[in-house]
Hints:
Blueprint: E1 2-8, H1 13-22, E2 29-35, E3 42-46, E4 49-53, E5 56-65, H2 70-81, E6 89-95
Helix pairs in contact: 1-2
Amino acid sequence: MKLITSIIQPHRLGAVREALEAIGITGATISEASGSGRQKGHSEFYRGAEYNITVVPKIRLETLVEDDLVPAALDAIVEAAASGKIGDGKVWVTPVEEIIRVRTGERGSNAL
């Protein structure tokens, strides 16, 4: 099993969720995040003054998948999240040694 973590733009969340559901991945943890990368934020004007916003809002999406679904999941996320512009995000994969469903005590693949 692997944990796929994605940092994406908030307005791309719907497309990413739909792409994952299309390949059979329905479970995910979604949280708001903020950060900066190569885009180094952006400028905004408020009451005639310019402000530099160095931390931009993002979405962190985490999902556990079986090893054989990892390539399809990565392709789905990248294709759905990509706009071709700076700030599209990052995706990384982390190995998972064990998973347990708390309610039933199921372990491994049965807990997904």
